[in-house]
Amino acid sequence: MSDDERGDTANSGEAARGSTARIVAELGGQIVDGGKPRGFHLTVEAVTEELGVTRPMAREALQTLHQKGLVNLQPRIGATVQALGDWDLLDPDVIAWRLQRAPDSQMRSLTELRETIEPRAARLAAGRRAAEICHDLISLAHELHALSTAADFDQPEAGLGIRKRFRDVDALFHRTLLRGSGNELLVRLAHPVEMALNHRIDRDWAGGDPLPAPAAAVSGPHPAPGPGSDTGPGSGVGPGPGPDSGAGTVRRYPVRPQPAAMWFHVGLAHAVDQGLAATAESFAEAILAEIRYGHLQDPVVREQLRAGLVRFNVDRLRATDRAPFREAMGEIVGAGHAPVVVMGVSGSGKSTVGKLLAASLRAPFEEGDSFHSPQNIDRMARGVPLDDRSRSPWLAAIARRAAATPPEEGLVVTCSALKRIYREVLRAAHPDTFFVHLVIDEADATARLSGRGGHFMPASLVASQFDALEPLEPDEAGMTLRADLPPLQIVAEVQARLAARRIPA
Fold it and tell me: Across 245-364, where does the E strand assignment appear?
């Protein structure tokens, strides 16, 4: 055989393999979208006639689909389409066909897979703390952040190269994280994770129409979905609820990456580097929650992130990143998660400050006086001071309200909380309770109450409150501020302290 003949033979072999791949893709796509439903019988002769190919090519295509679990091939009988549960759902081709034909269903499944493996991989990576992995994760996180702020990222044409680079770096970041786990099974799952990441930015970018379907996709109208297909009612494909309709949905990729998501990547990389397993896991959970909702609606994830940040050393970040990281995390975990008690003697301005603080934190406000029993109110109105026994049911009622505070909601409540033992009752109900003590001298407090009408508390009881007052001690979570400061200044200082408390310097 001459060199030319050998070349022609090689070229024809490559063409045949390419044609076989096309047949496999066409048949696989039809099975995925229900055109050839579960139980559908395929023979070599039928494939040959339908697609106009040779018998060897049809046979090889059916053998390939058999290997992928889409059909059960039996000698002299032919192939029978299998149920979805029998498919090799981690096969790259099967994933690709499902992303083409049933993207919502497949993205849900891939995201659920990521939610199962990536937080665990983050925890393991932080435990191993391999130097090369830490270096690569931090470098990739910084590059992702820089790319996300590029001026042209959100431009359909001008930003195409930037988005492709971002896609590749993002995939490499998550692949590196799985590799850092040191678990060979998790590493093997890197490819489906990467396909999910690529699909979101390549095919589901909110800044423009999806890119044209790959050449392997079958053109023309698709048959109605059949039983066992990956589309149809309940699959999340086609007309129905929008992208924000429920917890099972996966958001479209935003026009520009959310800053919070980029800081989560930076935080995850540095948490692995600092060997903080729980913190790394919480950042991975936050990244996936952002994919679901665009912000952290899940109070459990948000609380895990808040707890993880307590041990996180922000000073290990680049100097230019520290302030924006703190600001971003402060906004995300929320200032109002732990109950805030505005305390002090009567006349110190607790109600005024408490209402303003609650509004600024977007948290509910409770007036502590409303928890008093009628007997207590009558007693104080008659000028009889309360003692520990009479205050006990009142403190217990406020404590129950604090204990019922959802972590995503927060609470601001006024309460004199004069003695440390009173404050311990409230802390026992919610250990994170933060106290803001408004200090005022006795003469000013008396003057304020004397000029206040319509309240049951007489000025004559101010002295008894000062007799009982035990100021906050250094080991108590709280802060002391002068009651004569402008209320908005007090609120600003409390907000700053709460932010610093959430994310230590």
Answer: 340-343
Is the CB of residue 481 less than 8 Å from the CB of residue 496? no
Torsions phi, psi for 342 (to 5 deg): -90, 115
Judge whether residue 169 has pLDDT over 90.
yes
Q: How many CA atoms lie within 13 A of 172 on its CB side?
A: 16
Give dist(CA 186, CA 164) in Å, integer. 25
CB 349 within 8 A of CB 438: yes
Six-digit token string for 450: 């004397």
* Spatial contact of 314 and 325, defined as CB atoms under 8 Å apart: yes
Please give the backbone phi and psi of residue 188, each rounded to the nearest 5 degrees, phi first. -65, -20
12: left (phi over 0), alpha (psi -120 to 50) or beta: alpha
Alpha-carbon distance of 426 to 432, in angstroms, equals 10
Of 256, 305, 300, 23, residue with least CA distance to 156: 256
Burial class (CB in 10 A: 0-12, 13-18, 19+), 389: exposed
**HSE (side-chain half, CA atoms, 13 Å) at 325:** 26
CA nearest to 349, candidates 472, 449, 426: 449
Ranges 269-273, 297-301, 463-467, 477-481: which has the least confidence: 297-301
Quick one: average pLDDT of 59-85? 94
Helices (H) and strands (E) in the chain, counts: 20, 8
Distant-in-sequence, close-in-space partners of 131: CB < 8 Å, separation ≥ 6: none
Mean pLDDT check: name the lowest of 19-28, 85-94, 489-498: 489-498
Which of the 8 DSSP states describes residue 256? S
DSSP 8-state code for residue 316 = G
| Interval 21-40 mean pLDDT | 93
CB atoms inside a 10 Å sphere around CB 17:
12
Distance CA(97)–CA(112), nearest Å, equals 18
Single out the residue of 293, 299, 301 nearest to residue 243, CA to CA: 293
What one-letter code names the amino acid at 360?
Answer: S
pLDDT at position 233: 31
> Which among 311, 315, 357 has a CA at the least distance from the CA of 338?
357
Q: Which pLDDT belongs to residue 274?
A: 97
For each of the domains in the chain, give its residue range(s) and CATH number, in order of start: 3-89 (1.10.10.10), 102-207+253-332 (1.20.120.530), 335-502 (3.40.50.300)
Tokens of 308: 């993880």
Residue closest to 316 by CA, chosen among 479, 134, 485: 134
pTM of the predicted model as reported, rounded to 2 decimal places: 0.59
- Any idea which residue has 């200082």 for tokens? 493
Phi-psi region of 54 (alpha: psi -120 to 50; beta: other; left: phi over 0): beta
What is the number of other CB atoms lying within 10 angstroms of the CB of residue 292? 20
10 conformational bin, left if phi > 0, alpha if psi -120 to 50, beta if neither = alpha
